[in-house]
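Incident log, structure service

09:12 report received: a user says their structure output differs between two submissions of the same chain.
09:20 pulled the input from the user's history:
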Amino acid sequence: MDTMDPAALGLGLGPDDLPDGLVVADETGQVICFNAAAARITGIAPQDALGLPLDHALPLQDVEGRPWWQLTAPYSGLAIRRGQPERNLLLGGREVLVSARYVRSRPTGPVQRLVIALRGTEARRRTELSHAELIATVAHELRSPLTSVKGFTATLLQKWERFTDDQKRLMLETVDADANRVTRLIAELLDISRIDSGRLEVRRQRVDMIAAVRRHVQAQTTAGQRPDRFLIRMLEPLPDLWADPDKVDQVLGNLLENAVRHGEGTVTIEVGPATAATSADATTPEGTTVTVSDEGPGIPEESMSRVFTRFWRGSKRGGTGLGLYIVKGIVEAHGGAITVGRAPAGGAEFRFSLPVAAPAFMA
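09:34 re-ran on a clean worker, output below:
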C-alpha cells in the first residue's frame, strides 16, 4: 500500500505537525494518510483507518443522515469539480467541519488524491456562545426600561385624572429617558453588526474637535457633574479634521462617561495634533489626538488587553460592556488607532488618534 511520506509537506513538517485534521485517500479510495489531529477530532485511531476504503474509515453523514461520500461521489462525479467547501457533517453522532480537495493529474482527469481537511466545532461553538451572551445581555438591558415604560404608561392611561401636572410630567420624563435608553441600545446593536461585518460607514465632514469636547463636557455638567471636575487642554494649532461627526460624538461621549462613572478626581481631556514620528519632518501634523484620563484606581495591567473586547465591564458592573468595543471599531473605521494605559495621576488613560483624511465628496 502506498503511504504518504511524513516529510511530503516540505519544510521538514509531517502531517502530524498540522493543527487541523488531514485525511488523504489514493486513486482507489483507500486511506493513505490519517494524521494525529484527525484522530483527535474523530476519535478514530490512525491504524484503524489506514488502508480502509474512505467511506468505511470515515463514514460521514449530512445533517439528514445521508451518506456523504455517496452524495458527493468524488471519484465518479463531474470531472471539472475541484472539491467540496467546508460544511458541518456528522460522524457517529459527533459534529465535524469537513472540506475536500480533489487532486487530478490534469484539469479534467481522474482523481489521483482526495485530500480531506477536518476541524472541530469548538471555534464555532465559541462564536455561538458569544452570540448567545450578546442576546442575553440585550434582553436583560431591554427588560428594565421597557418594564418602566409599560408601567408608567399603563398607570397614566388608567388613572390620568388622579395625578397632578407635576406627577404626570415626572412620569413622562421617566418614560422619555427610558425610551432614549432603549434607542441607544438598539443603536449599539446596529453598530456591532456593522463593525463585525466590516460595513460601518464613515461620512466625513469637517469636525471641530475642541468644540465637540466642550459640548460633551457641557452635557456632563448639565447632567449634574461639577464643572471643576473637568480640565480641557488644547495644543493648537490643529490640522483640519475630516471625520464622521456623529461617530466622533459617540467616541467622546463614551470615553467621558466611562471616566466619570468608573474614575475619580479630575477628568482631563487633552486635544492636540498627531504627528508622524517616522516622517522626515516629525512636526508635520498627521491628524488629531484626544486623550481622556482620570485620577481613579485605573485599570489593572492584566485587564488592559481585554478592555476593547465585548462585554468588558471592569470592576464595576452595569451597562452592556459593549461601549469600548464600539469605540475601537469606530476609530479604526476612520483609519485611526486607540490605546489604553495608566494616566500620570494613576487612573485610566484612553488615547485615540484620527487621521486628517479627506471629505466624503473627495473620497
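09:41 both user submissions now match this output. Likely a transient worker issue. Closing.
09:42 reviewer note: Confidence is low (pLDDT under 50) at residues 277-283. The CA atoms of residues 295 and 346 lie 6 Å apart.
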